[in-house]
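[job 4471] stage=fold_predict status=RUNNING
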Amino acid sequence: MTDWQQPRSKGVTQTLVATAGEAPREAVIAFERLYRSSRDDVYAYAAGILRDRTAAEEVTATAFERAFRKRAYFDAGRGEPRAWLFGIVRNAALDELRRRGRQVELAAEPVDKYGDAAAEDVDRSERRLLLDSALGALSAGQRELIALKFFAGLDNAQIASVLEISESNAGTRLHRAMSKLREACDEAL
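[job 4471] inference complete, writing structure tokens
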């Protein structure tokens, strides 16, 4: 049985009890919350890996379907739901790349998840070109770290969980990737 508190009136609470048959509904609600809070970031991350918006949409759908089917296997002791989800997305994207027979190569160009902006000013366009060039100087692994941190919005602990490395190792690798990105930006200027 699952217990939770629900306010009945000002200052008074009552305990509601759900039968075992009702408990799965709670898991579905939690998954819906995870979906709503992560869907745009999942798509941006998949598009960053695949460099193909249509394939990113398919991988996003596949990843959420896999996550929904496997939601009962999520172990909170091993990490947060968002990191677990991004591990599934990463695997689905790598499956897609293998299916295509392509070598795993991450995009040098971040994907604009809000579509093409028609009225970008010149300064912003120049900065975007500079960043694209600098990201191209990074290794695929370094671009993946940048994508997880800035496209997907994961923290170091979540990145560590996705990549199955320690949190300190994730932080160190991310720091090195950011240093190399800064150097590449400075060289391009």
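[job 4471] summary: The longest strand covers residues 2-9.
[job 4471] exit 0
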